[in-house]
Design a protein that fits this description.
By secondary structure, this protein is of the alpha+beta class. It contains 13 helices and 12 strands. The protein has helices at residues 2-18, 20-58, 87-96, 130-134, 147-152, 161-168, 211-218, 242-256, 272-315, 317-325, 330-367, 375-401, 405-410; strands at 62-67, 71-72, 75-76, 100-115, 118-127, 139-142, 156-159, 177-180, 183-191, 206-210, 231-236, 267-271. The chain has a 6-stranded mixed beta barrel with strand order 4-5-10-7-9-8, surrounded by 4 helices. The chain has a two-stranded antiparallel sheet with strand order 2-3. β2 (71-72) and β3 (75-76) form a beta hairpin. α2 runs antiparallel to α9 (272-315). The radius of gyration is 34 Å and the shape is elongated. The model has no long low-confidence stretch (mean pLDDT 83).
Length: 412
Amino acid sequence: MRAHWISSVHVAFTALKTNRVRSALTMLGIVIGVAAVIATVAVGTGASRRVQSQIASIGSNMVIVIPGSLTSSGLQLGTGSATTLTRSDARELSAQCPDISDAAPAVRGAASVVYEGSNWGTTVLGTTPEYLKIRDISVAKGEPFNQQDIEKASKVALLGPTVVQKLYGSADPVGTIIRIKQVPFVVQGVLTPKGQSAGGQDQDDIVLLPITSTKQKVLGFKSANADAVDAILMQAVASDRIDAAQEEARSLLRQRHHLLPNEDDDFSMRNLEEIFKAQATSSRVMSLMLAAVASVSLIVGGIGIMNIMLVSVRERTKEIGLRQAVGAKTRDILTQFLVEATTLSICGGVVGIVIGIVSSIVISRVAGWQTVVSPSAIVLAVTFSALVGIGFGFYPARKAAYLDPIEALRFE
C-alpha cells in the first residue's frame, strides 16, 4: 500500500515537471489565496495583540468614574459638565464597597515644566498613591510619594520617561528640582515606560504630583467645592466582579449625592476593559472577514486546478488506457490523479505561506502595523489548500479512473 502511494506521488511529480509552466500557472490561484489569508490573519492577530497590550498598560479591572451626565431642566449635559465627585467619594468607595479594592481621585491639567534652561509642556496629574497600583505603574528610579506627602501637600514629583528625556536627556533627574508654574518641586522618582494609549497618546508624557499640592499650588481650585476632583479611578477585586463593583459604586454615589429614585446619575462610569475588548473583537471580526474574502481566491484556484486536470486527463487518455491494459485498477488511476491535484494545491499552499510571511513582514515595516503570523493560520492554510486540491481534483480523477480501456486506447 505504501509503495502504491509512493509510486503515485512519483508519477504525479513527473507529470507536473513535464509541464512546469502550466503547473506554475495552475498553482497561481492557490498561491495568491494562501498568501492573502496568511497576511490578513497576521494583521488581524497583530491588531488584537496591540489591543491586549493597551489593556495591560492602562491597568486591570479598572473603571473610571467621571462627573457629569447631569440632567438640568430635562437637558442631558455631557460628562465633565459638573463637579460632582470629591476626594471623600473616593475614600468611601474604597472603604464601603467590598468589590472595590482601591479608588484614587485625580485632577489633571497642562503645565510647563522647567529644569534649568530646559522646559517642556506636559500633563500634570494630581492623585494619591493608590493611582500607581490601579494603573499598574511602578517607579523605575527613586521612590513614589506616600500618604504623608498627600496630607502635607509635599512638593514632590514623579516624572514620566518622556519628560525625563526632554528635560534631562540621559542624566538622572532624581533629587533635582523642577519648577511648575514657578513652584519648585523635588523630583522623587521616575516612572517605568507605559507606551502609547489606545487613543495614540503618549502615556509617558506626564508628571504625577500629590493631589493636595496639585490643587493648592499648581492648578488651583476650579470651583467652590475645594474637594472636587476631575475623575475617580477604581479597581475591582477581580475581572468577574467589575459589574458588581460598578453597581456598588453607583448605589453609594447616588446615596452620597442625595439623588432621588427618579433622578439621573450625576456621574458616568466607563469600563475601559469592555471598550478595548469590543475593539479587539471588532479587529478579529474584520480580519476574519478579510480572510473569508481572500479565501475566494482559493476557490478560484481550485476551479483552475480542476480545469487543468480535465485537460490533462484528455491529453493522457491513451496513457490511461495503456495503464489499464497492463493491469492498473480503477483505484490506481483515481489515486494518481488525486495525488497530482493535491500535490499541485499543497505546493501552491507552501509557496503562498512563504509569500504571506514575507508580505506580513513588509506590511509591518512599511505601514508600522504589528503583525503576528500564528502557527494555527499556517496549519489552516495548508489544510484548506489540500482540501481544495482533493475536492476539485476528484471529478477529473474519477473521470479518468472510469474510462473505458478500449475507447482510451483508440483515442487520438
